[in-house]
Model the fold of this input.
Amino acid sequence: MKKQQQQVNDSFLFATNNVGGMQLDDLQNEIDETKWNTLKFPENCKIIKKAVCGAEFVVICNEKNEIYYFGNFGTSEVHDWNQLNIENNVKNNLKYLFANYSNLIVQLNNDNITIFNNDETSQTLNFENCGIKFIFTGPLSKQFIIVDNKNKIYEVSDSLKEIDTSEIDNYNSNTIKCIGCSSQAYLLVTNDNKIYGYGTSGFGELGNLQSTLEKFQYMSTPFEKESEIIDVKGGYFHFVVLLKSGIVYAIGYNCIGAVDVNNQNNFNYFIKLTHPLFENEFINRIYCSSRGTVLITKSNNAYFIGEVVYALQGYDCDNSIDENIQSYKVNENIIQKVKLGDEYNDVLAGGWHYIIYNNYNLNKSKSLQYFENKLSNLIKEQYYNDISINLF
Done:
């Protein structure tokens, strides 16, 4: 079987508004806050297997499961790429990477979880007995969510807390579709297209529910019977919901237009996120930064709404920064449009920074993804534990 070739890039496109303290002043590679920058990978990271963003950092993993971080993470005083010191057990069994506000979360093949803190200390959670079905978090979330194979939902911060699901209708093994995470609140999407809120609301992101919820509670939405919910993402105090129809709704904090680009009022109810720039586009991916929203369309346009490059705030944005990047002033807010392509095809959103990169998984055919998933499950069985196959 001929192996599908992965296009090799040696860099990200990187932009920051520096509000979150990325501490880039002493960076070896000069960063210009007024534009997108090219951020080179470490020498032995020509192929990126996984990439995630926290509030003030980005983490990449190469095909050897070596992990490198950039930004406000770890103990290094040089804010360039640094390698994270991990044990061989973590390196050899790494399955998934996640990042929240200040932690890197590594899920292992045996369903143990290693949590790396901002100072590079770590702790382990053991889920071998009950297994892990899902992990959910976001770059602004102070916690993360684990759903085990017994359908229990846990909030993980300094301790492990089981969340009450008694208010969720007909809760069972097929109930949960996805969970969006803001700084201290969560929206759970069920497979019957309902949304349930939990946690603490800062600016109306839990709708008309009380500001602090001790259990998941039902939220009425205008799209429950309109179209299937595909995804939900959270910023610091706002949520964005993507429907199968390509329509996006948003709720919560809107000081620079992340929820409604036409004004700066906060919303405690879901409104349709729209503007003439993208109203005729089919949106198929969403991301959130602290006060920003990213919409990616089927035609490979990425729209950065609300929080974009810091120096563009208040800037007369009727001109093109370069041939693939245009910025537009909308009242007091800004929309930045970036054309994606074969070289850079996807976006990562951190707290106060964005990464444009080549996501290999988007280029895989469905048949290859199916083959890899089946083969990955096969070699986990004890009868095949002497087989080692690297598909990257």
Remarks:
- The CA atoms of residues 154 and 162 lie 4 Å apart.
- The chain has three helices and 30 strands.
